[in-house]
Amino acid sequence: MSKATDFYDSLNGKKVAFIGAGVSHKTLIKMFSEYGANVTLCDKKTLDKFGDYADTLKELNVNLSLGENYLDGLKNQDMIMRTPGFEYYTKELQDEIEKGTLVTSEMELFFSVCPCKIYAVTGSDGKTTTTTLISEMLKESGKTVHLGGNIGKALLPEAMNVKEDDVAVVELSSFQLISMHQSPDVAVVTNVTPNHLDHHKDMQEYIDAKRNILLYQNKDSRAVLGYENDISRNMEKDVKGERFYFSRLTVLDNYENSGYIDFDGNLCVCGKAVVRQDEVALRGKHNLENLLRAFCAVEGDVPHEIMAKVAIEFKGVEHRIEPVRTLNGVQWFNDSIATSPTRTIAGLNSFSQKICIIAGGYDKKIPYEPLAQPIIEHVKLLVVMGQTGPKIEKVVRENPDFEKSGIVIMHADNMEQAVKIMYENTKEGDIVSFCPASASFDLYANFEERGRHFKRLVNEL
């Protein structure tokens, strides 16, 4: 009998509270109920906001703790299922932990029951593309891949179908990692820069959350760390097993445990050239780093010729410098994944000319000063919107090179207006990129919804 089967069988008669009814929780609420758990849903929404799902909750006999005092439902439970967006150090949650209640999450439970090798990626930038590249390389090599975490789907519901010779590839956010006490077999830390400081009490808490991807590894594990980022490089002290570095800028001395670009422009891993830089399909120098870290993660499990095949053929994933259309000679790109200044800077560096950008969104309380000079150097028209629009405009205008740059700054109240302004103020040969440098939560549920709205508006022009 598998660990996953044992886990689901153990639910019979247990009191389990779910915080929030997101997509993965809806699936798990149904499964937990069917296995005999006494389920309570805790959600700040009232029942009338659930639409048809309210009928499902009634059919499953789910207890409801809704509205203003929804966290009262956390009391006297055997298990609390936390959604990643719910802050771990909330007093109500910590009170229940002190009482001995198990507080966990879909991803933590999957780690505890998964029978196969797990590759996991975290960092401030590049997580999704790196995770996807690792998944594609493993699939091309013949593996059955289970893709989850912040990408793909919830993996716990299908854990009973995962075989020992399969592989799991997961993207992990700081919100998921902050309470985890298990680490993957292969851990990749892309980089660590200020992010999500609206949720974490300070930068150190954010860093410590990321470190959990390494802290519970063992001597047979592998850690892949960014060499150029001081924080990720210094995580070497947390490595329990094999350590790999990757770097786009430095030809690393330790060929046996590194990914780098050699002096001839080849992407290399462990001293061997895999693919030429000019053969890579992905746009942008930052994607060379994504490939290098993926090479390091799968080295020994995937032949180099398959690594090269994926590098040559893989053209990217949705919302990452994604071509939308060319209209009247103007190219439009969707980079909605650029939810931080560093991601936006990487996008700006992907173009060989000055471009026109739409920026701004939800305020994660992170500094925007690092964005000013790259905008001055790479942007000729800046349209700002959302909560962070004024902050981005302020740091650009305060840059000493602002006046001579000739950059034009315009304002929009929403996405519709921003796209309209861009359409009316660009000409043949221009490039427009939606690279917000901010999260989406002021107007959208997530960056995917925001990116699709942008693409729809552009395609309707």
Task: Give a quick set of tags describing it.
461 residues; nine-stranded mixed sheet; six-stranded mixed sheet; globular; 20 strands; alpha/beta; 34% helix; single chain
Task: Please describe what this structure looks like.
By secondary structure, the protein is α/β, with parallel strands linked by helices. It is 34% helix and 20% strand. The protein is built from 17 helices and 20 strands. It has helices spanning 3-9, 23-34, 53-59, 91-98, 106-113, 127-140, 174-177, 203-215, 230-233, 285-298, 304-313, 341-348, 369-378, 389-398, 402-405, 415-424, 447-459, and strands spanning 15-19, 38-43, 63-66, 79-81, 102-104, 117-122, 145-149, 167-171, 186-189, 222-226, 242-246, 258-261, 266-269, 272-276, 322-327, 330-334, 355-359, 379-384, 408-411, 431-434. The strands form 3 sheets. It has a 9-stranded mixed sheet, with helices on both faces. A 6-stranded mixed sheet has the order 15-16-20-17-18-19, with helices on both faces. Strands 3-2-1-4-5 form a 5-stranded parallel sheet, sandwiched between helices. The longest helix has 14 residues, at 127-140.
Summarize the structure.
With 461 residues, the chain is an alpha/beta fold. Helices cover 34% and strands 20% of the residues. The chain has 17 helices and 20 strands.
